[in-house]
Each structure stands twice: as structure tokens, then as C-alpha cells.
Amino acid sequence: MSGAKLTEAESVVMRCIWNYEKEEIPFLTLIEELKDKYGKDYKRTTVRTFLFDLEAKGYAVVERRGKFSYVKPVVKKDDYKKVKAEEVLDIWFDGSAKKFISALSERISEDEGQKLNKLLDELDAD
């Protein structure tokens, strides 16, 4: 995966690309999705600039076919989420999953908490 960090705006564009239900998203659909689902009313040139940057960072590729452009993710959403989770864990919780889960305890149901505790206990045993 690319080591380059995404800006907040690039992250929104990538989320839109990843969440599209097909393996590539038409450029014009991307603009519509950014507006409809994320409230981002970007101009075509702005979205194109984001895509140039995402291509340079190795996150997406834009293919032109005839009059239309299509955007494909290069980095998988799950791979990106894993790296981001590890960064948060390392930066804010000294690498401790238990500290991280403790911070989230108000948002986790009792059943989820029990499952997570069991998983963490299994990880500690290894």
C-alpha cells in the first residue's frame, strides 16, 4: 500500500470511490456521489485535481475511454482501514488495543465488549 497520507478531502473522494458498488466509478458519477452522499459540491476541475493527487500517491487510477473517464481504486479499502487503525493505535494508545477499546467502551454494546475481551485475551495468550 502507498505510504503517502491522504488529506481530508482526498479521504472523502476515496471513500466515495470505495463505496461505489462496482469496481470503477464513472467520473461524472463520482462528482454526483460526492455531492449527494457527502455534501461536497466540488467543481469538475477540483475533483480532477484530487484525482491527479490520488494517482500520484498510488491510491487510484483514472482511465479515459472515449469521451468518458473512469476511476478505479488501487489501494483496497480494508488495507487502508487497517493501516489507519494501526496508526491510531500507535499514536494515541501506545499500541495497546485494550486502551483503545477502553476509550470506545461507551460505544460498544455489552455483547460486543465480551467478544472483544475474549479476543484480546486470546491475543495476550499468544
TrEMBL record:
GO terms for molecular function: DNA binding. Keywords: DNA-binding, Transcription, Transcription regulation. InterPro entries: BlaI_family, WH-like_DNA-bd_sf, WH_DNA-bd_sf. One of its GO terms (biological process) is negative regulation of DNA-templated transcription. Gene3D superfamilies: Penicillinase repressor domain, Winged helix-like DNA-binding domain superfamily/Winged helix DNA-binding domain. Belongs to the BlaI transcriptional regulatory family. This is Transcriptional regulator, BlaI/MecI/CopY family. It comes from Anaerostipes caccae (strain DSM 14662 / CCUG 47493 / JCM 13470 / NCIMB 13811 / L1-92).
